[in-house]
Amino acid sequence: MTAPVAALGQGVARSIAWLGALARFFVLTLGSWRWLPRAGRRVALRVLLRQVWFTALQAVPLIIVLSSILSFLVISQAVRELGRLGATELIGRLMVVAIVRELGPLLTALVVAGRSGTAIAAELATNKVMGEMNALEGMGIDPLHYHVLPRFGAALLSLLGLIIFFDLVAIFAGLLAAAASGMTSARYFDIVLASLTFRDVWLTVVKGLVFGTIVGMIPSFQGLAIRGSPTEVPIASSQAVVASIVAIFICSGLFVVLLS
Fold first, then answer.
1. In terms of CB atoms within 10 Å, which of 44, 153, 220, 255 comes out highest?
2. Full-model pTM
3. Number of DSSP helices (H) and strands (E) in the chain, helices first
4. What residues make up the domain containing 213?
5. 13: how many CB neighbours lie within 10 A of its CB?
6. Model confidence over 72-105: pLDDT tens digits?
7. How far apart are CA 205 and CA 159, in angstroms?
8. How many domains does the chain have?
9. How many CB atoms lie within 10 A of CB 85?
10. Taking the CB of residue 260, how many other CB atoms lie within 10 A of it?
11. What is the CA radius of gyration of the chain?
12. Residue 20 lies in a domain
């Protein structure tokens, strides 16, 4: 009778301990920036640029496809249905609220978490298995400086840039859908721009920073948390992606609750 309760309690305790360790890892990563030497900053910058190339620039084609299809489907249906009701002005709010504010940041974060989060966790876990972390520490180099900080910074920059890019592509893809349904481009942009507020802009930026932190921290933490067995590498990768996706959905829900 008490076994399920005990199992639940143990699961909650493990989750709390994991969150505590993750928070400590996050604080240590931020604090390590102060002790990064000048020469180390040049190396970290090169690693960061390589990560931005992989995380952001190589993901652009996928973002274009997803954003265009999503926006075209939503706006084409909205123009048709709302046009029957004489409420086409609501298309602007639909674009801003559903795509720019909610689905754009969420889908972009999920893409980056699934694509780059897996790579980060697998790479760091493999490096630890191969003994690179111990080698860096033996040379007096903090692994946080070389491995974690650049990936964290790249995740922030990449998520923020890709979210903005996703929203821009969605707006122009929505124009094509609206034009195909008979709406003029001037009318479409008037409706969308009238619905877009400064609150929507800063909320997009904040979501980019929060989701970037999740994608940069959780995979790095999971990759470095393994004890050294090669069989732990795929486990760490899958756990990193699952934890990142869950955290992204939870934070997205919290944004809705707190700002409603």
1. 220
2. 0.89
3. 12, 0
4. 37-259
5. 10
6. 888 887 777 766 666 667 777 778 888 888 888 9
7. 9
8. 1
9. 8
10. 5
11. 22
12. no
